[in-house]
Amino acid sequence: MRLLCAAGIVIASILPRAASAADMDAAAQAPARDWSGFYLSAGGGFGWWSADQHTDFEAPPSAQTDGSGGFGTVGGGFDWQFAPSWVAGAFADVQFGDVKGRIKAPFEGYSGTTNNRLNYAAGLRVGALATPDVLIYANGGCSHAEFTGSGLDPTPLVPLSVAKQHYDGWFVGGGVENTLDFTGISSPGWFMKTEYRFADYGRRSAGMYVDATGAPDGAIAFKPTVQTLSFSLVYRFNEAGNHF
After folding, report:
1. Could you give the maximum distance between any two Cα atoms of the chain, in Å?
2. Most buried of 101, 133, 173, 176, CB within 10 angstroms?
3. Structural domain for 130, as ranges
4. Domain count, the chain
5. What CATH number has the domain bearing residue 78?
């Protein structure tokens, strides 16, 4: 988790330097590539989440939990190269996978497994061209997360469970996108993207513990944050404009 935070700081510190260098290069020569246009992306990565848990009647956290795992991602968007060295755009994507961890009951030592299996996001990004083929960018926007419900162990005489959870929040992040030409194989339209993202979903009820009859038996509040590091292939449809 500290490694991911460090990655975000590094990306944020590099972006202004890259922009300055790119602006200097722009004065000397015109860019050899046009980044404007629609694109689709697909890939995968690793995710980590952590959460403070609160009982309804407690102000400080009653427990802390976390989870980790892999996920896949697909998305798309539109970029606009509004200056020789600057690119801005809008995008949306979805992450789906198995970022699994434990959720704890606030009584009698019960716990269960919960899985951050689905995240939706939509936002904006802005970046600077370090070279005509390399974009360093920052992004942010709105996000929605889903955590699965869970039975609680050890199984009591009356079964208990936690309901499925839905959260709305925000995210910030950044990354690097570049062409695949560095492999030595001509690949017009194909790019690769490496991105770090941090999402915060605030505090809300995680659902009721219920018995076999469906009667409420208590509740907790769940306050998760999710960090992801993803690697994606990107295809840009402005093929005619990729090379002058």
Report:
1. 76
2. 173
3. 2-242
4. 1
5. 2.40.160.20
